[in-house]
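Weekly modeling sync, notes
Attendees: S.R. (lead), two postdocs, one rotation student

Agenda item 3: backlog of single-chain predictions. S.R. asked that every request posted to the team notebook include the full sequence so nobody has to chase files. The rotation student volunteered to paste the first one in as an example of the format we agreed on. Action items at the bottom.

Example entry:
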Amino acid sequence: MTMQLRTIDAAALANLSRALVGFDHIFNARVNNSNYPPHNIVKYSDRDYAIEIAVAGFSKDEITVEVDQDQLIVRGIQTTVDADGKEYLHRGLASRDFEQAYTLAEYMEIRDAEVKDGMLIIKIERMVPEALKPRQITIK
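Predicted structure, as returned to the notebook:
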């Protein structure tokens, strides 16, 4: 007998989100549920994370990265006239304005943001205060 999961138990989801450490909360709290632009969430270690967002067709002047309390907000707004003065009459490449918001877990700090090869890479570090880190007690 096989059983299919058709609904998500709210209590199980709450327990799962409590068990996830650090950055995993962003999957549940997004202002815009759009999948545009495509993005990756990368965990390098317990301290180092990154969000990679495909921003092909956007210049770095058309992208803003803002942190407001525990929200990371990324916006891309294209202009019809670029810096060289050329005006686009038609844009066939998939590039439309966007806004994505991510909820940052406690102690997450944005370290850097850069556009490289059509990707916006936002580097994030988990900075837990020394007082909250586990410590060994010397037995006398």
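Discussion: group reviewed the output briefly. The radius of gyration is 20 Å.
Action items: rotation student to repeat for the remaining queue; S.R. to check formatting next week.
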